Amino acid sequence: MINEADILKLFQLYTDMARELCASMQQVIPNHQKSLLSKPLTSTNFEWLFDLIYDVEPTEEFVFYSGMQWTWHWHGEHCLFESEQGTMIEANISNTDFVDIAFFNHFIQSYDGAQYVLQSIDHLDFNFTASLFDQFAEKNLLHQQNGPEFTLVNPSDH
Fold first, then answer.
1. Residue 145, exposed/middle/buried by CB under 10 A (0-12, 13-18, 19+)?
2. In terms of DSSP bridges, do strands 142-144 and 99-100 run parallel, antiparallel, or are they unpaired?
3. Which residues, other chains included, contact 152 with Cβ-Cβ below 8 Å and sequence gap of 6+?
4. Coil/strand/helix, residue 89
């Protein structure tokens, strides 16, 4: 049986880690490219997205977070961070509170601290998590943003 509170705590942890990893990333990108992060994201702003895809030139291959070295790969509006232990966080750089269903699954599967949750799930896939997030949205615990992205309704409660 899945514990709702455990999933919501992992959701909060994911957003906290994404926020802190993005802050670490900002420390290693060149100053002339930091303005790319400050532009408002709109689905019609293709020039901005192309700038993010093609113009980011990292000065460091790694960021440090929680005493560990993390690799990072910035692509479009997301950045994939992976720890030395294999934990993966895919952050929406314009809003780290947004959690994509598929990226959350990768996090749960790769994060050692979530193994107890995996043991209570028969088959973790996109449909399972989408259904779970929809149930949480019906209970006003999560809010659906765009497509497969959700946010916590009351982050301080978790």
1. middle
2. unpaired
3. 8, 11, 12, 15, 97, 141, 142, 143, 158
4. strand
User: Tokens for 58?
Assistant: 């990292």
How far apart, in whole angstroms, are the C-alpha atoms of residue 6 and residue 71?
Answer: 27
pLDDT tens-digit series, residues 7-44: 999 999 999 999 999 888 877 776 666 665 555 554 44
Give the amino acid at 12: Q
Q: Give per-residue pLDDT as tens, 43-69.
A: 445 455 555 555 555 555 778 888 899
Angle between helices 126-138 and 4-28 (to 10 degrees): 110
